[in-house]
Write a structure and sequence with these properties.
alpha+beta, 1 helix
């Protein structure tokens, strides 16, 4: 544990709080994911994908295949 009088304590606590909030937010989505049909639904976590000469990250990507019925 970082001592309270350490110059970086406030920074560490802010970063930890932000990280914890993000973790809790992602965990809370699992409840809603449970309503997706198992067949035709895919959930990808923590993707890092190339784009041009860089990369981008996605916490969660949901792919769901649905075919509209004919009228």
């Amino acid at each position: 544990m970082t001592p309270q009088n350490h110059p970086k304590t406030a920074l560490i606590e802010r970063r930890h709080a932000r990280s914890l909030a993000g973790y809790r937010g992602e965990r809370s989505l699992e409840y809603y994911f449970s309503f997706l049909p198992e067949k035709g639904s895919y959930i990808f976590h923590g993707l890092r994908l190339p784009f041009l000469s860089n990369h981008f990250q996605m916490d969660v990507l949901i792919v769901h295949f649905f075919i509209y019925p004919d009228h």
